[in-house]
Write a structure and sequence with these properties.
Elements: H1 16-26, E1 35-38, H2 48-63, E2 67-72, H3 82-95, E3 103-105, H4 110-122, E4 126-129, H5 133-139, H6 157-169, E5 178-181, E6 196-200, E7 214-216, H7 218-228, E8 233-237, H8 244-254, E9 260-264, H9 276-284, H10 299-305, H11 309-319, H12 330-344, E10 346-348, E11 350-351, E12 354-359, E13 368-373, E14 383-388, E15 391-395, E16 415-418, E17 423-431, E18 438-446, E19 463-464, E20 466-468, E21 473-480, E22 506-514, E23 526-529, E24 533-537, E25 548-554, H13 558-565
Parallel strand pairs: 1-2, 2-3, 8-9, 10-23, 12-18, 16-19, 21-25
Antiparallel strand pairs: 4-5, 5-6, 6-7, 11-22, 12-15, 13-14, 15-20, 16-17, 17-18, 21-22, 23-24, 24-25
Helix pairs in contact: 2-11, 7-8, 11-12
The structure holds one RNA strand of 74 nucleotides.
RNA sequence: UGGCGGAUCGUCUAAUGGUAGGACUACGCCCUUUGGAGGCGUCUGUAGAGGUUCGACUCCUCUUCCGCCAGCCA
């Protein structure tokens, strides 16, 4: 349906990172090269916070005519999986970015990293520690108390080399030894207290199989990986700021290319959680239906929900880049998708909760085909024909037997316009005798008021959407709301975040009636259901026989606001 | 109370010694055959106290508050 799914926006706003790059370019640093990278660990699906980082890194590369690599930080085989690398690649592509042939893995560098480690041992800057993990922990000290030197810290270079070789050769069990850098056990920066470089892990790696049984720690792998790839600007989140002195030290001791690390504040959204660990819990506990559940803040979740790549890119642009902690209001994300879909989506009429109307003075066998505009924001999208007949459905919410103040819709004796059709008047209310529920309305129409040729000058306050009963097609509609009912689900230290799940986060409607235009809707197609919101065909569960639509986002609803404030 | 980093409308984000601006939200009004969209407008902000200066969000001093760091996770 959309042909321009993956075009780039222009007019990007500057930020402190771009200013640093501007200065570097002015000073002709790195031969005026700009090379970034996006370095996910394949241990979960990408979320909207990653989208910010992707847009930042790939966006900078594009705008400065540089390059951006995709590099998987796959240094921990026990958490990682190819399922995740595939989903990550799909998500980045869908967002509209291209790493060309630069798909790299930290595991590509395991041999080089091993050589670097040997070099550090030879320089007397690394040693094998044979303490247990508890002992190491206890000797580390606290932020205010210096750590103690490991009894193994004084081992000779020869002995270190010997044991490290045997570690690699698989002669020890998990946890028997680690390789540590000999840095500073009394540093006030905990990251510098002889950080571990290698641990023994007899685990199958999704790329290197069983070639290795020692795996580098992130802190040992990351900076050198950047260096090997010639990354000029290594952009990461704030929590790695404390690690930068370590990365700089490794680079200096190894005498290799020095990428500049720049830290920015990660994205947080209210009414959701953003850590992969917590999202994994929601998946594993069955609270949501997988990583791509439309309620998840994952890229695949938003995609299935009906968000466009453009809307997410535009959102990433709007939130900005800075160093202070932030919590973005989800309404900004919702604004971004409405803004995009308003311009491009096909309009259509769909009755979510049907109420039958019989137009008593309309001929029983007559069917009129009425002209409807496909998108008032874009004339080139043309028009379509919608069938109209004696029996139609309107939305239950569009009728009130005793109208509230400012209720402009249908009520007994009142007139409203049917979109693209006639003005009707409610003459009679039919109720279920046992429950008192309104089950049908008997109305009359004014033949002179046909849309487009109405010369009666009649003015009505409300316009309703509708579908012709006989021609209507059925569909399942999934109404999504925010996943959590609390703005900050992690804010209460006493209660588990999962207890704040919004019970209304998913409501399924089975009796919805759609205009026949929708019968050919394809997986992923997006529409505006007039007066309701934006919906898309579910990519997993929808079939031509059983259409399933997901509500991406509601339209802004000023009537709901009036009700809420009264 | 060790180190590092932060603090500008309700929420984000600009202003880099010279008119505190934009976006979202909220609230009005106009318009409307989507109570949509659009248009116009309003509210609200430099954490506090001193100092330097003709002039301070910006520079200096002190204070307060917030985040991160004690994984063989990333």
């Amino acid at each position: 349906m959309e042909s321009n799914e993956n075009t780039r926006e222009t007019n990007v706003q500057s930020n402190f990172i771009r200013e640093i790059i501007d200065e570097d370019l002015k000073a002709a640093k790195n031969a005026s090269r700009v090379h970034t990278r996006f370095p996910p660990e394949p241990n979960g699906y990408l979320h909207i916070g990653h989208a910010k980082s992707i847009c930042l890194n790939f966006g900078i590369a594009t705008d400065y005519k540089g390059l951006c690599n995709l590099r998987f930080d796959d240094t921990n085989p026990s958490a990682e999986d190819v399922e995740y690398v595939n989903s990550i690649k799909e998500d980045i592509k869908w967002l509209g970015f291209d790493w060309e042939d630069r798909e790299y893995y930290a595991s590509n560098y395991f041999d080089q990293l091993y050589e670097y480690a040997v070099k550090l041992i030879n320089k007397g800057k690394a040693y094998v520690d044979s303490s247990s993990s508890d002992e190491i922990k206890n000797m580390r000290g606290t932020p205010t108390v210096a750590g103690q030197l490991s009894p193994y810290r004084g081992r000779s270079i020869e002995e270190n080399l010997d044991i490290f070789t045997k570690m690699k050769a698989g002669e020890f069990k998990d946890g028997e030894h680690v390789l540590r850098s000999k840095f500073d056990m009394s540093s006030p920066n905990m990251n510098l207290r002889d950080p571990i470089m290698y641990r023994i892990r007899h685990a199958e790696h999704h790329r290197t199989g069983d070639k290795w049984c020692i795996y580098p720690m992130y802190d040992w792998a990351h900076g050198q990986s950047d260096s090997i790839e010639g990354i000029t600007h290594s952009i990461c989140t704030l929590e790695f700021e404390n690690h930068r002195p370590l990365y700089d030290w490794y680079i200096k001791e190894l005498e290799i290319f020095h990428p500049q690390q720049i830290e920015f504040a990660r994205l947080n959204l209210n009414y959701t959680v953003m850590s992969k660990r917590k999202l994994l819990q929601l998946v594993e506990d069955g609270i949501v239906n997988g990583w791509d559940d439309p309620r998840m803040p994952t890229i695949s979740g938003y995609r299935r929900r009906g968000y466009t790549p453009e809307s997410i890119r535009s959102f990433a642009e709007k939130v900005g880049v800075a160093k202070r902690d932030n919590v973005i209001d989800v309404s900004l994300l919702e604004f971004s998708i409405r803004e995009d879909l308003n311009k491009r989506s096909q309009r259509v009429m769909a009755v979510l909760n049907p109420l039958k109307i019989t137009i008593s003075n309309y001929p029983a066998d007559k069917v009129e085909m009425l002209e409807a505009v496909n998108n008032p924001e874009d004339e080139t999208m043309g028009k379509r024909l919608v069938p109209f007949s004696r029996e139609i459905y309107i939305e239950k919410d569009d009728f009130m037997e005793i109208p509230a103040k400012k209720f402009f819709r249908l009520s007994p004796g009142n007139e409203v316009r049917l979109r693209y059709a006639y003005i009707i008047k409610c003459e009679e209310v039919v109720k279920d005798p046992s429950t008192g529920e309104v089950i049908e309305l008997i109305c009359t129409y004014d033949v002179e008021t046909k849309s487009g040729s109405d010369k009666t000058g009649k003015k009505v306050k409300g316009t309703l959407h509708w579908v012709s009963a006989k021609e209507a097609i059925d569909a399942e509609i999934r109404l999504y709301e925010r996943l959590f009912s609390e703005e900050d689900p992690l804010g209460d230290k006493e209660k588990d975040f999962k207890s704040f799940i919004n019970p209304e986060s998913l409501r399924v409607l089975h009796n919805s009636k759609l205009e026949p235009f929708l019968k050919d809707a394809k997986s992923g197609d997006r529409f505006q259901f007039e007066r309701q919101g934006y919906f898309c065909v579910d990519s997993i569960d929808s079939t031509p026989e059983n259409l399933v639509f997901n509500r991406t986002v509601t339209l802004r609803d000023s009537w709901a606001k009036i009700q809420k404030n009264s």
